[in-house]
Amino acid sequence: MATEIIMPKAGMDMVEGTVIKWLVKEGDKVDTGDPILEILTDKVNMEVEAETTGTILKILAEEGEVLPVMTVIGYMGEEGDDVPDGPATTKEEVVKAKEDTGAVSKKSETTVPQKQETTTQELDPIAGDKVRATPAARYLARERDIPLGRVTGSGPKGRIQKVDVETFKALRATPLAAKIAKVEGVELDAVEGTGHGGKITKEDVVSGLKKETPAAETTATTAAVEEGKDQKIIPMKGIRKIIADRMIESQHTAATVSLTIEVDMTASIDLRSKIKDMLQEEKGVKITYTDLLIMAVTKSLVKYPLVNATMTEEGILVNDHVNMGIAVGLDSGLMVPVINNTEKMNLTQIVESRSDIVGRTVKGKIKPNELQGSTFTISNLGMFDTVSFTSIINQPNSAILSVGAILERMRVVEGKPEVRNVMNLTITLDHRVMDGVEGAKFLQYLKGLLEEPTRMLL
Amino acid sequence: MKEMTYKDAINLAMSEEMRKDKNVIFMGEDIGVYGGAFGVSVGMFEEFGEERVKDTPISEAVIVGAAAGAAATGLRPICEMMFMDFITIAMDNLVNQAAKMRYMFGGKAKVPMTLRLPSGSGTGAAAQHTQSLEAWLCHVPGLKVVTASSPAEAKGLLKAAIRDDNPVCFVEHKLLYKMKGEVPVDDEYVLPLGQSYVRKEGTDVTIVTYGTILHRVLEVVEEVEKEGISVEVVDPRTLYPMETQTIVDSVKKTGRAIVVHEAAKTGGLGGEIAAMISESEAFDYLDAPVLRVCGLDTPIPYNRNLEAAVVPSVEAIKEAIYKVMNRK
Question: Which stretches does UniProt call biased (Basic and acidic residues) (chain A) (predicted)?
Fold first, then answer.
């Protein structure tokens, strides 16, 4: 009589498993304990081992099938044993796994023996329902989108307190690493974790320390600091380090080209002064040139969608919506809050969203998810009298617009000198995604909208 | 402003109101010729005469019953229980008559009476002369309950109580009678009822407390400040109807709350205040459980050492602060 091979229940809460790969084929001989197939539970990849010695008689489940636990997926036994004809499982239960289960992740290093009855109940980090936390900690975690299950509590019985959420680093650290970091004053979020699942280990903190304080500490700089006391060294950590890493990464990956165009802003200035008071009265918000730019740039991006594309590993993703990143320079460092779906907004909504999100960025009340998902970025340094500049592309965007100051300049209009208000716009684009001509057309179209802003109503 | 004791401030509040309004009368056991068991009314008999400062038989039922009737028919009686403990004897007249008259007569009657109640332990007066029974009174709709923790507050709040058209129970902790402080001698210095008060500002913990124990809390607060813990102290002053927003705002600021009172823990006001905090918008700001540091659920012992041991000590208050601050 043949023995059934079943989809094992490898955990208390496992209800189904995916057959990833059969490691044997029908007719193969196996010994007890030999791995015969690989399955994916909701947590790990694992190998299923043969329970007896014998021959694989029949394989019922195809690779990629998602099956409830305890489903018969094959038979083994002595050659010539009877195998039941039909599959023991009702085929309706079988759900074809989506082709693109990216879930077939790295093979986990631990293989769980088949039929292991229980695994320790892991806390669902997202649910946060079985986590001991104070109301204040929960409230803050909700505010900042932090999964409480990943926060280590310092309160009684491991209760998570507000301070734990405040100091939570998305990268978890081992208790020892956290302690060393605390003693040495290392910012954990600047440390790269090399442990399991990106965990920060003691070694990570220590090696970071070594980098920060090279053994040859008696270099000229330190000596100078000690003698000249008034020199200051700003350590590369925290947000400074993140910015540094991202900029370098962007410079290394993107093939950048910059194009500059001059825009006559006279009409836009007119328009802004006309609606400024109306908006202030109606909605209590102040319209800025950035708002007009967001609107004009959005319309130009809709027309030239490649400029609004996102680089992905699979290729160029042409976005069907515009999420506008606005570069905001703070004393603590550069931040880019994002206004989503500006292509659906009228000018009032743009002004309201911009003042809300930029205002909250300045106040430090911005949520992490509001700093993600931009498809294009505007950086405006006009208020600092900068005439023209180029920016580093905010990855994974394909381009960034640098906005200079509006200045009164003599210009030739229909053969006569006239005083006009002009502004330089520079687009820096990723030549991997588009060619220069695409950027040039985009700029030309944008210039047209800003010089005749009534066109934006069309 | 003039420096005087808490009991003189009470005497001044009563005298000022009696001079102002001939309908205000005062009665109680030994309050006349003798000047009161704690000497609060010394000189009042001489000034206002037997008509308005009445020595009564030793019957709290009579005192409160007579006061309720007098109040309903137009006088504004103040009466003194020799000890708060004996409010038990007046309970029917206070709870079933005075507290309900205005309601049951459809608002046609008013009961502007004030009941002065010397409360609390610390004098070695044993179990029947030392209780803090304010929670009983707060549980009766129709009664207002007020307590003052300084001479100036005693004057301002008692005047407001006398002027109030409802029965007000004015709880005076015996140990405060000798406390000295600057008191406004201005006739119109009145502190409104139903207004909690931030006695001291702080950022880390809110302690809600009232009466004598407030002063012990302030001592502890000064000590823990040296250890870097900043405590805010809120005195509700009017225990019923308590103004809660001040407390809620304070807890929102600090994220931690402790209630301290001398009265026994079970069924005490601490539970009420703690529940109010967790029902309020302050809930989302709490970073520790709301703790109560209260008297033990025992009769107050006669022995001085034991008596001191059943009410919140400096150590117990400190311990609670460390606990909510998660410090050992």
Answer: 95-109
The residue of chain A with its CA nearest to that of B251 is A136
Would you tell me which residues 161-190 of chain A have a C-beta closer than 8 angstroms to some C-beta of chain B? 161-163
Interchain proximity A138–B284, CB inside 8 Å: yes
- How close B319 comes to chain A (CA, Å)? 14
**How many contacts, defined by CB atoms under 8 Å, are there between A and B?**
27
Q: What is the mean pLDDT of each run of 10 residues along chain A (458 residues)?
A: 82 77 88 85 73 87 83 86 62 36 37 37 44 89 80 86 80 66 71 65 73 46 48 74 85 92 94 90 89 95 94 88 92 88 93 92 81 92 92 92 94 93 95 93 95 88
**pLDDT tens digit sequence for B179-229:** 999 999 988 999 999 999 999 999 999 999 999 999 999 999 999 999 999
Q: What is the pLDDT of residues A145-197, one digit of tens each?
A: 778 888 888 888 888 998 888 887 655 566 667 777 777 777 766 677 676 54
Cβ contact, residue pair B326, A155, below 8 Å: yes
> Contacts of residue B287 in chain A, CB cutoff 8 Å?
134-137, 161-163
Catalytic residues of B: 129
Question: How many Å lie between the alpha carbon of A356 and the closest alpha carbon of chain B?
Answer: 24
- Interface with A, mutate which of B280, B284, B324 (most A CBs under 10 A): B284
B interface with A, Cβ–Cβ below 8 Å: 255, 283-288, 326
In this prediction the pTM is 0.52
Q: What are phi and psi of A273, to 5 degrees?
A: -65, -30
pLDDT at A233: 78
Residue of A nearest to B283 (CA): A135
